[in-house]
Amino acid sequence: MNDNLLFKQLYDQTSGTYTYLLADKVSGQAVLIDSVFEQHNRDYSLIQELELSLIACLETHCHADHVTGAWLLKHRTNCQIAASTDSGIDPLDKSVSHGDENSFGSFALKVIATPGHTDGCVSYLLNDQSMVFTGDTLLIRGCGRTDFQQGSANKLYHSIKELLFALPDDCIVFPAHDYAGRTSSTIGEEKRHNPRIGGQANETDFVGFMENMNLPHPKQLDIAVPANLKAGKPDDDELPRTPRWAPVTTTYSGVLEVAPEWVAANLNGVHVLDVRTQAEIDEESAQIEGAQHIPIDKLGARLDEVPTGKPVMTICRSGKRSVLAFNLLRQTGRDEVANINGGFLRWYGEGLPTS
Amino acid sequence: MNDNLLFKQLYDQTSGTYTYLLADKVSGQAVLIDSVFEQHNRDYSLIQELELSLIACLETHCHADHVTGAWLLKHRTNCQIAASTDSGIDPLDKSVSHGDENSFGSFALKVIATPGHTDGCVSYLLNDQSMVFTGDTLLIRGCGRTDFQQGSANKLYHSIKELLFALPDDCIVFPAHDYAGRTSSTIGEEKRHNPRIGGQANETDFVGFMENMNLPHPKQLDIAVPANLKAGKPDDDELPRTPRWAPVTTTYSGVLEVAPEWVAANLNGVHVLDVRTQAEIDEESAQIEGAQHIPIDKLGARLDEVPTGKPVMTICRSGKRSVLAFNLLRQTGRDEVANINGGFLRWYGEGLPTS
């Protein structure tokens, strides 16, 4: 793998979907392949924490088993949405066709049209041919089904045998799904061991396999396909509401955080909970005006002392133990809780007022 | 990543455990880090299909949340079992200490003693420093708990801050667990963003966090720790019984297969089910003596015609559609079913008798 390539594989456990983040470490330009609606906060926070600039959400096809996060991410990052001209997805910022390249920094993902699971299925090949993102065309020891949308086992056979199996044997296959804890394969492995199309399977064998699978109707299809044809744009055309009680961000570790400047400017509207130890407070007498002090080791037993009515902002020395306080309060069913990013160290560092 | 390195990340969904297979493509020598008992067939079949020679199962520590597959894999592959001298695991083929190297082909994994979650925790660093396998010491935006076995938050703080955070920022962190679909991090990311020990967290902050987590008792601990102290050796000291009805192997795709030579030599003891289409049979009149013929597209409706009493061996032209027949029969609750590897093509190729 090229040292300047940043690569992350992400998994959505509900739908069994893999999302891939690729970025050029030098320029910071990034692309996200096959994002998932429910994971847009996770993916957005990762992009933020890695200080990347998302330039495109690439779809391998119009999915039938989950809704894409592309529209949400576009509206948070100004990225483009790209997919095959034949995917039916509308609106698209970039319609891609066989042979097109999607650049990010000094890298590019080349489009290989691989119809069969749907007419608009494409695979994305990294320009050094070290990795291919095959969507639902080629899975690890499997392949996408061909019995709905525009599925065609014959087309899928030719896409896999003539285009994907023509790639180098060492090319790593990253599919859109796996359900058995496998994260990647290679072209060489699938050529030898794919139980549907590997080894000496011919078109009759493969089509005979695919046409006799008798799979149940995919349970998300009637929801996912209409939503994905709109690139994951919600029915009400609205971005998920940001909380009114504070301008929170979600970290990749899943914590709601707020910047200390905002807290300092809105002290009347919030309740600050300082969870430093008594020894720390004794040593460092500065406090935030109006803050309640309950040391973290006592908080579990004293949760009912934290007043309701105002959003709670948790703080400690460096913003770590206050995450525990955030977790404890959230576990009691309170929604309006956030951790003050960076704790007192950042509060002091920004010259914010103490009493 | 070095082009000669073969790398696979595998996941056990029940325990949320990552297992790692690393191999030198040139020599074929492989090591497996933190295998899982219930996944030993998956991992063994992958090693077989990749034609690798497993030389060691490396344990990062004595796990409390799942049982290792090391003992089973040792008895199937003759690999060594390696872990820290301080892990308490007995018997070990190789006791490793800080600074030791575990070679596989032209690669090596260097041992970094990282106590804290347990006394015997080690991390394994690839010799080019591109990847580190951190076990339960450093997780993605988290770390192992320190409230059981020989847990010490202070020791863990020093292991992470002084040893792991001293590695290059780009070094990829592969942990033993994740529960949110994240597959890797980097040292640089965790130094900046780990919500327990990243940023400006000092020892007091970190220890204060770890000592106030009040986590529930780990539900597998009382089963897993005693089993792992024996490297995953089953209570009856026995390998899982291999089926008596046929010398089957499990493929990485999860299919039970049997070699055609064995079927040819044991025709009286098995029932061969040929699922080729009528057109194929008409064209290619050769049959296996005594075989029943039900075309794959009719099998679903005619399953009750397949006699019980003898194990069923499924076959078609190339051994693909017969996997569907295998699946169909297994779904009816029959256990003694296997696919004949390679189908008629291999049967003919090996000169086995037809009628």
UniProtKB/TrEMBL annotation, chains A, B:
Coiled-coil region list: none
Highest taxon of source: Bacteria
Keywords assigned by UniProt, alphabetized: Acetylation, Dioxygenase, Hydrolase, Iron, Metal-binding, Oxidoreductase, Transit peptide
Gene3D superfamilies in the record: Rhodanese-like domain, Ribonuclease Z/Hydroxyacylglutathione hydrolase-like
Signal peptide: none
Short name of any one Pfam family annotated for the protein: Rhodanese
Residue stretches making up the Rhodanese domain: 266-355
MF terms (GO), sorted A to Z: hydrolase activity; metal ion binding; sulfur dioxygenase activity
Classification via SMART domains: Lactamase_B, RHOD
SUPFAM superfamilies: Metallo-hydrolase/oxidoreductase, Rhodanese/Cell cycle control phosphatase
InterPro entries: Metallo-B-lactamas (IPR001279), Mito_Persulfide_Diox (IPR051682), POD-like_MBL-fold (IPR044528), Rhodanese-like_dom (IPR001763), Rhodanese-like_dom_sf (IPR036873), RibonucZ/Hydroxyglut_hydro (IPR036866)
Cofactor: Fe(2+)
GO biological process annotation, one example: hydrogen sulfide metabolic process
Family according to the record: Belongs to the metallo-beta-lactamase superfamily. Glyoxalase II family.
Name recorded for this polypeptide: MBL fold metallo-hydrolase
Biological source species: OM182 bacterium
